[in-house]
Amino acid sequence: LGIPPLPEGLPSISLTDNSIQVLTKRYVRRGENGEPAETIDEMFWRVAYHVALAEEMYNGQVENTAKDFYQLMSLKLFFPNSPTFTGAGTPLGQLAACFVLPISDDMGKKSTGIFQTLRDAALIQQTGGGNGFSFSRLRPKGTIVKSSSGQATGPVGFLRVYDHAFGEVAQGGSRRGANMATLRIDHPDIEDFICCKTNENSITNFNISVGITDEFMQAVINDTDWDLVYPDLTSPLCKDFDGDADTARRKGLPMKVFKTVRARDLFQKIVEQAHHNGEPGVLFIDQANRYNPVPNLYQLESTNPCGEQWLGPYENCCLGSINLAQHTLEDGSVDWKKLEKTTILATRFLDDVIDMNAYVPAVPQLEIAAHKARRIGLGIMGLADLMFSAGIRYGSETGQEFASQIMEFVRFHSMKTSIQLAKERGSFPAISGSIYDPEKITWEIPQPLKPYTHHWNRPDIDWNEILQGIAKNGIRNAAQTTIAPTGTIATVTGCEGYGCEPAFALAYIRHMNDNGKDVQLSYASPLFEKALLRSGLTAQEISELVDLIMESGTCQNLEKVPQNIRDVFVVSSDISAEEHVRMQAALQAFVDNSLSKTVNFPAGTKPDEVAAAYQLAWELGCKGITVYVTGSREKVVLETRSTA
Ligand code: CDP
Fold first, then answer.
1. Integer Cα distance of 109 and 88 in angstroms
2. I need a labelling partner for 311 at 20 to 30 A (CA). Which of 369, 373, 379, 493 fits?
3. Domain count for the chain
4. What is the pLDDT of residue 172?
């Protein structure tokens, strides 16, 4: 689709066999005969050139920018989310990973009605995009429906309808879009919702999350009662009401209390359920709204499927991740200069994606919403790799500070670039009344959770420059940073740690299905092997150690592994839940959207420990929390490793 041939002299990407397989299967275009219609390098050029076409609108240089974008990807410095690879320069043209759609409390009278939104969602799914929905506006199960005198189905019933529908929708591209359903903690049907996935085989196409308010957390701490409420539909004042409890309260509408429960009992229900199988997740709605950049447009009610991206109605976010593993100097320390350069170019790339994304033409609201706020979601992957190279233990206090400094640096340069783009191209159209309104800036300079005590040769950054820049030029993107799970792109780039997660295991055996045959592939962390070699162990000794590690994934119990290596090469199960939460909070301080992170607990964890992690996450300003107690699911639903 208008992409010129790959110019000569550009570097080829170097990939492992597994990466080539995943990439070829998922990203490379195929002809009618099903065979690849482009080489891997041509695939990167297609994406680079298509995205760079946006430059034309701003009198920029398409060809040169395309070459820069190509290098960004082929040197594995930065990857956009998977749909950009499958959609760019193809008839599909849809480039974003995730959307949030509104559901109003009607079957389809309005464009946001239950079945209208289902239709919109199905169309998005066909492009490989995932959807998040808040079901909180739907009237409780059993309330009277005036027009038919029947009884309302309620959020959980409609969630099942959606789930069945999505189960049947053939997915476009090469992936199934995931889904997220959210329900507020004060909705009368919340107890049903919390338990709706108790049976692992029900509602398989959705992640579920409870939207928790500060008031509820206070009620849990103070051990008080908690009302489950919905606007009183018998009141004439509520006749045309279309919103959730929050909106109703803001409008001063009469509310009906359906049930009063002890807050702690309800909290315990969530905790036990999550302890049992990792769901529901928890979303801290008030914290998200305190940082909502565009309160002039909407209140936030839901996130995308994996929880890292809060979005308003019909908004999407095109995600992209800087590969930190490729930002080290010879000695393993951080290459700050390179990180700055990558951040600048990646921010420009994502801003271009907003213009080049075809969205879904049959749902025109998507493009309108995207262009109003121009959200981008720049994040990281391979944080664990960088920490292995730099010799810093993930989870430790030093590790928390290190992660915070990295993310602060990325956020700073991304914002700085967004201001520069505003100067060249204009601010996002909804800036007036937003937190970045140059006439009345309410955005506050982000602060680390604790004062810094380490210096890793990081160049100085001056946040006042950002404040002054916004006052002078505005800013191009209402939101700039998000940390995605990077399920596929971290596999392709060969990161040992996905997104901002610690490594999952230092060595393991992976089962692959090859045309019905179970093929076993063994893996060992290259960074770990390198560290062992440097410490003087022989190849034979290393190979024996790796064999031992295959069992548990960790080296912590192996005396033969030098202590200084054990101190650094930790995996998810070596890190305490509290350390997981503190890492999340340290990163969140410099992510304006949210981040995808799982707090892992060892088998045998008690529900109270899960409850304590929830409370800590809330106190430290996280926007949500997802937990997983090892061994608690029959099927491992959270796929941590992508294979071909
Ligand atoms: O690595 P990749 O770009 O493929 O995606 P990711 O970072 O693992 O996921 C980013 C977002 O894409 C998720 O939070 C979901 O919103 C969406 N997604 C989806 O809808 N369906 C999937 N199968 C995978 C991701």
1. 35
2. 493
3. 3
4. 47
